[in-house]
Amino acid sequence: MEQQPPAGKEWDRLADDLAVCLADLSEDEFLILSSKRENYFVQFAAQGQFGMRIEAASNVYVEPPEAVLAADEYSAMAELGWKSPTGVPGSEPRDPDGSPNFFLDLALPVNFRRVADMAVQTLRQVYRISHPGQLQYRSFESSGIEIRFPILRLKREARNPETPNNIQRGPCSEHPYRGNPAVRTEIIVQVGCDGGSITIEGKRYGDTGWQFRMVRNEMALYDDCADDEVPEDMVGFLEHSDYLDSLGEALKLFDKYPYWIDMYVIKVHPDFVDDILSEVQSRGGTSAEARWREALNRKRKESESNGHEGGCEGDSESIVRQSRVRSSGQEVKITVPRKYERDIDLLLAEEFAVSPSFATWFLEQTNAFKGIQARVIEVGVSRSDTTGESDLVVVFEEPDSGRRFALQIEDKIDAQLQPEQEARYRLRAQAAIRKGQYSEFEVVLCSPKAYPLTHAEASGFDSCVHYEAVSEFFKSQRLNDVRCSYRAEFVATAARKLSNGWTRIDDPVTNTFWRTAYEIACKEFPDLEMREPQFAKGQTWVDFRPLDMPTRPRRTYVGCKGGYGHVDLTFGACLARLFAPRVSAVLEKDMFVQQTGKATAIRIEVPSFEICELDDAVLTKVRAAFGACVRLIQFYRQNRMLLDEAAAASLPKP
């Protein structure tokens, strides 16, 4: 009969697992370890670029009275590295840097293993807890949404709303500098890609002007290597420059990442829009500037639409959506300024939350969960992290087995998909699985029926639910239900291109270029299995995914980036520095491994090309790029088992 490991080994294992969980906490997420009996606890608050605050129970909160700490135990806390409590709740003056608990503020990069060891020593040596089995945990977001960490192997603490405030644990104190205008840091420009972001931050010093620095944040990649590297290696995931006196100097640091103008635009400070657009134009030309202007205008309009009851009245003359319904036998015309994706997000979220019939119907449109009976237990709108944003996250639970699964839904009316947007949805879903929120997922595109036909990159989604089908579902409900009729018409008008003010720009040069390239691919490079092209004006990249290339557990495909002069065999959610040594023996001489955000690519460089009038020189470059893509496809087929195993081994075990 196998015996349980000794307590010492269990504590060591808890320290290992706790370090992983702490690294997985995002900004404004909290984790508390507490005793099941006395009110001893250690709590952790992730504070983004401000690092992490950790606290441990002082006698202010310890109960029952016989469990209070003695003077020598206060000394032991100091020896472990804790700062002493600075007061009691309600005492004045309040120390903004302190806490009624033992506390410590940790700057980035946080050594999570050292923090975990400190917490375990506190629980064992000071609070005299003999075994991890005497602990429980609770983890949650600032909004109150619970987070699960089954890796801890601890019981989750049952929430008790009647717990008195004086012994309530967490969240920890706000960082002392947040909201202090004397040290306020503002985002000047921020762009993102898979795995993180780069940012120019600024500080305004009254009349003396601004100072700027660059911050590179790839902490989302930490969980991909935490099991393989010592914590000190985290230094490479977040760095910042010294402060500089001009924005131009700071933006030169951006140029270490030559494709930063092609990343998705997260934020631009309103006082610096013209300066930033001028820098973008100088690096990428008028087309890059136009893309940035479009992105900023879209964010501005969405913000106005979400923040004001009546939407943007200025748009109502040129772009108007009308829905007609009958109320009490009389037709009512409802005019809505331009419908945004956010409008559809909220409509669908409400239906998932209140209509079991809609949720069941929607599941039937998916591939993985068709025919499954399950109920909706959670609906999230605009869930975001450093990899981007999920429009809708709908979590289901099967009533008999208790199994939970999720739909990650991207909603598109007419906007372009961001680079590898579908792959980043998978990264967010996999992070949720590691937190124990659910065990399976499917990534769904919800869009007009015409959208996938004009956006080849939409093929990577697991399933597609069309607005037209959603509208027909609403129409199929009770014929006299005015609300369903209105919603059916609302969604249907969003699906109509002319109502959206969106049409694909018909560029004869681009059309001729890709029509010729398509004919060459079909005749000379059939392994590409190229789809008939319908590309945007000036587009120089195309993805190929033959039927034998997988989309799960990670998407694998070949991408031709003609404008950049390279082709990639891409493995989603994979860390290059772990992948490269595992495949180096089979790489051909002109192949090398490259990190592309949170994906990894085996790359071959080729002559670059732009959209132009075709001649023999350009066609030679296209053929060279297509030939390199075929080589990568054949290379994958010949080495599939090794490559797939290498990609799987380049991630931490869940």
Q: What integer value in Å does the Rg equal?
A: 27 Å
State the share of residues found in helices, binned by percent: 25-40%
Morphology: globular
Please give the number of β-strands: 23
Q: Which runs of at least 5 residues are low in confidence (pLDDT < 50)?
A: 161-183, 222-235, 306-329, 497-504
Largest sheet: 6 strands, mixed
In DSSP terms (H or I, runs of 4 or more residues), the helix count works out at 16
Measured distance between first and last alpha carbons: 28 Å
Report the mean per-residue pLDDT as an integer: 78
Strand order of the largest sheet: 4-3-2-1-5-6
Question: What's the short version?
Answer:
With 654 residues, this protein is α+β, with helices and mostly antiparallel strands.
